[in-house]
Write a structure and sequence with these properties.
Layout lengths: L5 E5 L7 H5 L4 E5 L9 H13 L33 H9 L6 H4 L5 H8 L4 H17 L4
Parallel strand pairs: 1-2
The protein binds heme C (HEC).
């Protein structure tokens, strides 16, 4: 039987899925987010996103087997949009105020709230984080 494993995902709420533990599947445990440099998209990506989306952005991070919905391959956002990087869409999906389907399933955390909390409500810091993450994802696009 597969060994039970834990993945730490920074988020606001603490929640553990008891059903998954019972089935001995990898489980996601949400922990308070650590501080990162708001001007480094790469550092934030590594800290907050790679666990699900993978270091290379292709959606196969270590926690991906525990997700109900597969994490998006972030490297083909431009390719799947006629070659143009959908900057606003990406920004809004990270912020979490548009209808990303997984919001219902809570698989994709609502980072806007996490970052607002991290910056103690400083909205310019929140948007700096969202902008720099969006730029980092843009830099990962396959041609
Ligand atoms: C706990 C796992 C998890 C973490 C951590 C996570 N994501 Fe996601 N993300 C998902 C899942 C699952 C989806 C797919 C949502 C869907 O298809 O409805 C997704 C979707 C997205 C999308 C939407 C793509 C689209 O089609 O519009 C973007 C952009 C994204 N994530 C960026 C990020 C960024 C940036 C971070 C880090 C700040 C991050 N994600 C962290 C699980 C995660």
């Amino acid at each position: 039987m597969r060994k039970h494993s834990w993945f730490l995902v920074p988020a606001l709420v603490l929640s553990v899925s008891a059903a998954l533990i019972a089935q001995n599947k990898p489980t996601i445990k949400q922990v308070p987010p650590s501080r990162t440099n708001a001007s480094s998209g790469a550092e934030m990506y590594r800290t907050y996103c790679a666990v699900c989306h993978g270091m290379d952005g292709k959606g196969k991070g270590p926690a991906s087997p525990a997700l109900k919905v597969q994490a998006t391959d972030l490297t083909v956002m431009a390719k799947n949009n006629g070659g143009k990087f959908p900057e606003l869409k990406v920004y809004n999906s990270i912020r979490g105020e548009v209808g990303v389907a997984a919001h219902g399933s809570k698989d994709m955390p609502i980072w806007g709230d996490v970052f607002r909390d991290l910056g103690r409500g400083d909205s310019s810091e929140t948007s700096l984080r969202l902008r720099n993450l969006t730029k980092h994802i843009e830099s990962m696009q396959t041609k």
